[in-house]
Specification:
heterotrimer, A mainly alpha (552), B mainly alpha (157), C alpha+beta (728), B: 157 residues, mainly alpha, 2 domains, two-stranded antiparallel ribbon, elongated, C: 728 residues, alpha+beta, Calcium-transporting ATPase, cytoplasmic transduction domain A, Rossmann fold, 4 domains, seven-stranded mixed β-sheet, six-stranded antiparallel β-sheet
């Protein structure tokens, strides 16, 4: 990374931070039922939807009802998408005449998109109809992003003084879509089209090339998908090669815009956290640690020499810098889109990617990243905070044994669902079936698959090659557990804060810079202690063996 | 002390939360999965039809490819795209790559190297504000060759 | 009667007041061998069930033992040449568990020693129980263990009070040496509280038993230190969950490493893997956690405070507000009369003599000091003898008045000289007749209490009163038949060291609030001197309850001190209540702590101890986890050395591959005894703000925890590899 690249990096992150900060009051307002300037557009639409749903949008829910409503709504969404994928040839908008997906792949795909993971075991341009891309993929991308944000916001509500419940899921979900995801996606879709991303429902263009060779130009409703996939930290691309594919990400301008969009909402939600609490200062440690951990990931990735623009797996228009920057960002935000082959990355960049997916909160996926960061804050407040000589408390709420049960469980699910399936993949021979050897590269690819699934990231080494029964089923289960188990536990934790006695404390100042520093160190030690041996056998070993990318 | 009202409402699975959840999924499907992409399509096709259709390039009124997709060139008289990259359809090559290919093109066509080099430099793109590093779009460069040297590339024109 | 008294004194209760010598015997009794035996008993896996970390280490030990005995049974996970290594690993694992168990045994011993010294107070004695039959009161001899609450006992000079009780008849001197540590006879009169274990040194007392045997404070305290019965405090419970969580996480890590090693065909050694496992487990805190809690209670006992629960000690650390009674806590308990100030038309003598009369039946320290001052000035009233027949009402905090009414009689003049213990002496002296005494009512009280009762107020009333209060002293007004004669100036003196204690409270972010019955000028003056900003003047005991309530409604953790029955409701309501041993039974029942020395300022020490306990637990936990980073770097390169030589570059410490694992394990085991003093004494505590305590400890135990093992393991490795070199 040279100086001008460093400047680019600061410019992009600077604009993310500034716009996230500016948008925070609006985003927070969505969850406090504040009026927006476009109330006349939103309100009637929402009223209509609430009437159609037949729910009282103002009724506050406890954590169980909130969480259950979300899970059921997600299940229905996955079921609807499943039907579309399985029977896409019976529905309109299939100009290429693609067949329905196989049962295993369809199941894996809806789970993958329904859980905000977007691990793709298919190539969209050669297997999905326009209706599938819209009605299954984009639909689930909206639905899962909204659900993630709802989980995050609901978790925060437990900590707000005087909260009577975690909010109303239906209201949160609908308002997230109408007031945040749809307007943001509309604007960015149009910007993407302007910058060169296709958006059409006419069939693929077929041309005779200059040398007389027939060429198919796989177009489609791409821009609308790309916008929500980045904004909602979904990451699943229209094409198999994701944002490395030139039609999805045609030039550095779209690349920078897409990078910006990935970081925007996760960052904005941290600011909104402070506003929702009514204690803006409290957003500080979350922001500092999310960005410090992200910066550390960038630093590790940029320590290694960057791949050249001509290197295999790198798109010329992005070069080594934007590709590495993207790889770190997509794994720190749980987006999972890629603009270069992961094989092209230096082992240190892959190490960063792993760290991003292990931490899950730097700044993490929309909503879920916030929830995980709160998990780390609470663990740190307890373990390290005991040293302040007071019963550890966060925002005046004392942390007790039951809270820690939920917190420790939420944390340890992650290593469990990454490591156990990785071993199973080798033992069952599934790894060998996708040509993953027992060396560091093979282990990296397999472990990455499950780290990506467990953290609901979605980037992977295996791609469509993993369309095997083992990987479809195992990743689907890992994604489901990785999504709902820890967040469910954290929602239970947050729900138990409702009505808990608050102490106006002269204790640990969690908003201080000092605490932020302690938090960063704690997260780092916690994650390193859990995963170091496995990183050592994967990317660290590759690096120590002198490999510069994954093609070796 | 804020009074704690126990949120009333449905317990475990029941009709009271199955029905709204199903309706919510359906509404989201219609609004976000159907209406939204169609709306974007309408806006895109109205405002930016060229980009929306995939930046198809035409030669003599006939679409011959897309700026955004590598086209296979096998003859030495053309600049050729790379054949490995992440997407497999990378439409661009680096400036150095283009300059190194210029020599072959010059040998094959007899166009002076200096002229080809100039053409390559004129066709450099890829910087957005300060982002990215210079690269050359192969299809654009080849089309420029065809248009600039009709006597050599006549049969492709 | 005499013979039965002799029989009654045959038990241990007859012993003369025990000094500190007795404690030394106890130490010998609870010897080190017993402690060692306890520590070995602690190795029983069943006794480790409550300590999952150590149980896991023990399981790892048995596995290591199995590997050492039958390496061939473990296939390629173990090599038969590595027997010596496996034996060393197993030995070090056993050492780790034993050190943990020994630490706990040490702490228990420390606690049991102080507990047993407390238990001595309730030694079994034979005592005289009084039973009323008809018109007669009969005395029967019973064992103290058979006493029940409400029983009435007669305790004579030279006997030990068998159990907590209240004096209902008689006045006697009592030695509370065993209880309060100070061998100074205290006078006890009806209404006073006696704690079991004190000795009556003169006269005799009739007392009513206040608690069933086994339910006294001492009993509760003893239960607290017996680990098997000791309930975990909320923070201990939460911390145990964290430790269990980390045990689970590292179990997942090691199991996965083993599974992955087998799946990938890496040549991993089970011995090294077990060593890594145990090194990662939070063994340091796992070993020290029980000791920290026990030693906290033991330290509290040593400072002669009885706690009713470990939870209360922990809560003390969270204190936000402390209500401090001015008298006894901030100022020396006894306000001393220093001057009689007459109003116009009266002399000092008039005031002094009236004050003398009004104070004769007033048993408060102030009352006694008035008598002393009057004697010193020679203001002994001739109405002295009439006092025996006088109607009197003692000073009460509610009315803030004491009253004496003399009935007409003949007066006497004092014949004898003056001495120190004047009152006692004069009781037995004869007096000369001194003429007739008229009916006389003398009131003594706080200015505002007296004011409405005065028949006419002298013009200088307020000036004099304000003058006295303005200088920080307290004025008592003397009314004779409703006419104000003058004021008594009572001087308050700050307790030694109280200013420093208040400063440290403020540094810890704790708000001291002073409560006093004095009027606000006096209160302000004292508060200023002590460095307290908030005070509540003219406070009645009920005000304490109100203040506790209002602070708690603002979610503050409130600590307070009390001794009277009036304080009981507030003590019960407050989060931390410290009752004085000299206080009433009701107050002691309501409080969480009882101070045997009746020193209210100890509440501050309790707060500090509470903080220290939490800090120590947090520090050892953080240290324990931070240590793991270095242990990874010591063991991973060796673990992977055979299959992935490239990973040897992780050996950033440059350890010898032959001794690195044992060095890490040895460090892991030795750090336990090294930190035992820290666990038993607590993390050094300097009163300062919560945040600076936190950051200081984080720097020492967090960052230090990251660095120390790197150094320690390296040093151990140098020694071990040198030794290995010699052997080879």
């Amino acid at each position: 990374m040279d100086l001008s690249e460093a400047f680019e990096l600061f410019l992009i992150l600077g604009s993310v931070l500034i716009s996230a900060r500016l948008l925070a009051p609006y985003v927070a307002g969505v969850y406090t039922n504040s009026r927006s300037r476009l109330e006349r557009v939103f309100a009637p639409l929402e009223k209509l939807i609430f009437r159609a749903l037949g729910v009282d949008a103002l009724r506050v829910m406890g954590w169980k009802e909130y969480f259950l409503s979300a899970v059921i709504a997600n299940a229905f969404a996955m079921a609807l998408a499943f039907v579309i994928l399985m029977f896409q040839n019976f529905f309109p908008l299939d100009p290429q005449g693609f067949h329905g997906l196989s049962l295993g792949l369809a199941f894996q795909t809806v789970v993958s998109f329904g859980t905000n993971t977007n691990l793709q075991h298919y190539n969209g341009e050669s297997s999905l109809s326009y209706l599938s891309q819209m009605g299954a993929i984009q639909f689930l991308q909206f639905s899962s992003a909204a659900t993630g944000i709802c989980f995050g916001v609901a978790m925060v509500r437990g900590f707000i003084t005087g909260s009577k419940g975690l909010g109303n899921f239906y209201s949160d979900f609908v308002r997230t879509i109408t007031r945040i995801l749809l307007p943001f996606s509309l604007l960015s879709s149009v910007a993407l089209v302007w910058l060169g991303v296709p958006q059409t429902i006419s069939g693929y263009a077929s041309v005779i090339g200059i040398e007389g060779i027939r060429q198919t130009i796989p177009v489609g409703p791409v821009a609308s998908l790309v916008s929500i996939m980045q904004i909602g930290t979904n990451g699943g691309g229209y094409y198999g090669a994701n944002s490395a594919y030139p039609l999805q990400n045609p030039n550095p301008a779209t690349d920078v815009l897409e990078l910006y969009l990935m970081m925007l909402l996760p960052t904005c939600l941290i600011f909104a956290f402070g506003r929702l609490l009514g204690k803006k200062r409290e957003a500080r440690p979350l922001l500092i640690s999310a960005y410090s951990l992200y910066a550390l990931n960038l630093l590790v990735a940029f320590l290694a020499p960057l791949p050249s623009a001509q290197a295999p797996g790198i798109e010329v228009r992005f070069g080594g810098f934007l590709s590495t920057f993207w790889t770190v960002t997509t794994t720190s935000t749980m987006t999972g889109s890629v603009n270069a082959s992961l094989y092209a990355m230096n082992p240190l960049a892959i190490l960063s990617a792993f760290m991003g997916m292990f931490v899950q909160a730097a700044p993490g996926g929309v909503g879920s990243g916030l929830a995980y960061m709160l998990m780390y804050v609470l663990i740190t407040v307890f373990v390290v905070g005991l040293m302040s000589g007071r019963t550890p408390e966060y925002l005046g709420l004392k942390i007790g044994a039951r809270d820690l049960k939920l917190l420790m469980l939420a944390f340890l699910i992650h290593p469990l669902i990454i490591l156990v399936p990785t071993i199973l993949a080798y033992v069952s021979g599934a790894a060998a079936a996708v040509n993953a050897g027992s060396g560091p590269l093979g282990l990296t690819a397999i472990m990455y698959e499950f780290a990506s699934a467990a953290s609901n990231n979605g980037s992977d080494f295996l791609g469509a090659a993993a369309n095997t029964q083992f990987f479809n089923l195992s990743t689907a289960f890992v994604m489901l557990i990785g999504r709902y188990a820890p967040l469910g536990l954290l929602m239970a934790l947050s729900g138990s804060m409702i009505g808990r006695k608050r102490f106006f404390t002269t204790g640990l100042d969690t908003a201080s810079f000092a605490f932020s520093g302690v938090l960063v160190l704690s997260v780092l030690v916690l994650v390193v202690l859990t995963f170091l041996p496995f990183l050592a056998l994967g990317p660290i070993l590759s690096y120590l063996r002198g490999m510069v990318n994954g093609f070796g | 002390m804020g009074g704690v009202t126990k949120p009333r409402g449905p317990g475990w699975l029941g009709k009271s939360n199955l029905t709204p959840a199903l309706r919510l999924a359906l509404i989201t499907l219609v609004v976000c999965g159907i209406a939204f992409p169609l709306l974007v399509t309408a806006v895109a096709q109205t405002l930016f039809p060229y980009q929306a259709d995939g930046e198809l390039v035409k030669l003599d009124g006939r679409a011959v490819g897309s700026n955004l997709l590598a086209q296979q060139f096998t003859r030495p008289i053309f600049f050729q795209p790379r054949n490995n990259s992440a997407s497999g359809v990378d439409p661009d090559i680096t400036l150095e790559n283009a300059l190194s290919q210029a020599e072959r093109v010059s040998n094959a066509t007899g166009i002076p190297l200096a002229q080809l080099d100039r053409l390559v430099y004129e066709n450099v793109q890829g910087r957005f504000l300060i982002f990215g590093s210079p690269y050359v779009n192969v299809l654009k460069l080849n089309l420029l060759l065809i248009q600039s040297y009709p006597e050599i590339y006549g049969k492709y024109g | 009667m005499a013979s039965s008294a002799e029989r009654a004194t045959e038990g241990p209760g007859s012993a003369a007041p025990r000094g500190r010598g007795a404690k030394r015997d106890l130490t010998a009794e609870l010897g080190k061998s017993e402690m060692l035996l306890d520590s070995l008993r602690g190795l029983n896996p069943l006794s480790l069930l409550s300590n999952p970390v150590m149980l896991t280490v023990e399981i790892a030990f048995f596995l290591a033992l199995a590997v050492a005995l039958y390496p061939q049974a473990f296939g390629r996970l173990a090599s038969p040449d590595g027997r010596a290594f496996y034996v060393s690993v197993a030995a070090l694992l056993l050492l780790t568990v034993w050190l943990a168990s020994l630490t706990e045994a040490m702490a228990e011993r420390q606690a049991k020693m102080s507990a047993r010294s407390l238990r001595k107070m309730e030694a079994e004695v034979t005592c005289r129980k009084l039973v009323t039959v008809g018109w007669e009161r009969l005395s029967t001899l019973v064992k103290s263990s058979e006493l029940r609450k409400g029983d009435v006992l007669l305790v004579e000079a030279g006997e030990m009070v068998p159990i907590d009780g209240e004096v209902i008849e008689g006045i006697a001197t009592v030695d509370e040496a065993l209880v309060s540590g100070e061998s100074r006879p205290v006078r006890k009169a009806p209404g006073d509280i006696l704690i079991g274990g004190s000795c009556v040194t003169s006269d005799s007392l009739t007392i009513r038993v206040a608690a069933n045997p086994g339910e006294t404070f001492v009993d509760r305290m003893i239960q607290l230190v017996e680990t098997s019965k000791r309930p975990k405090t909320p923070n201990e419970k939460a911390l145990s969950v964290v430790l269990l969580g980390f045990t689970a996480i590292f179990s997942i890590v090691i199991a996965s490493l083993l599974g992955l090693g087998l799946a990938l065909g890496l040549s991993l050694d089970i011995g090294i893997l077990l060593a890594l496992y145990v090194c990662l487990l939070p063994t340091t805190i796992g070993a020290l956690l029980p000791a920290i809690g026990i030693s906290g209670i033991a330290r509290l006992q040593k400072s002669r405070v009885l706690a009713k629960s470990g939870r209360a000690i922990e809560t003390a650390g969270d204190t936000d507000v402390i209500l401090l009674d001015k008298t006894g806590t901030i100022t020396v308990g006894n306000r001393r009369a220093v001057e009689f100030v007459p109003f116009t038309g009266y002399t000092e003598r008039d005031v002094g003599e009236a004050a003398f009369l009004s104070s004769w039946h007033d048993d408060t320290p102030e009352g006694r000091s008035i008598i002393t001052l009057a004697y010193e000035r020679g203001f002994v009233p001739r109405e002295l003898n009439a006092l025996a027949l006088a109607e009197s009402s003692a000073f009460s905090a509610a009315t803030r008045l004491s009253r004496v009414k003399l009935v007409p009689s003949k007066g006497f003049l004092v014949k004898g000289g003056l001495g120190i213990n004047q009152r006692e002496r004069h009781r037995r002296k004869s007096f000369d007749a001194a003429g007739e005494i008229e009916e006389l009512e003398i009131l003594k009280g706080a200015p505002d209490a007296v004011k409405p009762l005065a028949k006419k107020l002298p013009a200088e009333f307020d000036t004099i009163v304000d003058g006295i209060s303005g200088s920080g002293d307290t004025a008592m007004i003397i009314l004779k038949n409703g006419i104000p004669l003058g004021a008594v100036r009572l001087k308050d003196e700050l307790r030694r060291g109280i200013v420093e204690k208040i400063v440290s409270l403020r540094e810890m972010g704790i708000r001291p609030v002073m409560l006093t019955g004095d009027q606000s000028l006096t209160a302000e003056r004292i508060a200023n001197e002590a460095g307290i900003e908030e005070y509540i003047a003219r406070a009645k005991p009920e005000d304490k309850f109100r203040v506790v309530q209002s602070e708690q409604s603002q979610s503050k953790v409130v600590a307070m001190i009390g001794d009277g029955t009036n304080d009981a409701p507030a003590l019960a309501l407050s989060d931390i209540g410290l009752a004085m041993n000299s206080g009433t039974q009701a107050a002691k029942e309501a409080a969480n702590f009882v101070d045997l020395d009746s020193d209210p300022a100890k509440i501050i020490d309790i707060v500090v101890l509470g903080k220290q306990l939490l800090t120590t637990r947090g520090a050892v936990t953080t240290f324990s986890l931070a240590n793991d980073v270095a242990k990874y770097f010591a063991i991973l390169p060796v673990l992977f050395a055979a299959s992935e030589p490239a990973l040897r570059s992780l050996n950033i410490l440059g350890l010898s591959l032959h001794t690195a694992v044992l060095s890490a394990l040895l460090f892991n085991a030795l750090i336990i005894p090294i930190l035992v003093p820290l666990a038993l004494r607590g993390v050094p505590f300097r009163p300062s703000s919560t945040m600076s305590i936190f950051l200081r400890n984080f720097a020492i135990y967090g960052l230090g925890g990251l660095v120390v093992p790197f150094v320690g393991i390296k040093l151990i490795d140098i020694v071990l590899s040198t030794l290995a070199g010699w052997v080879a």
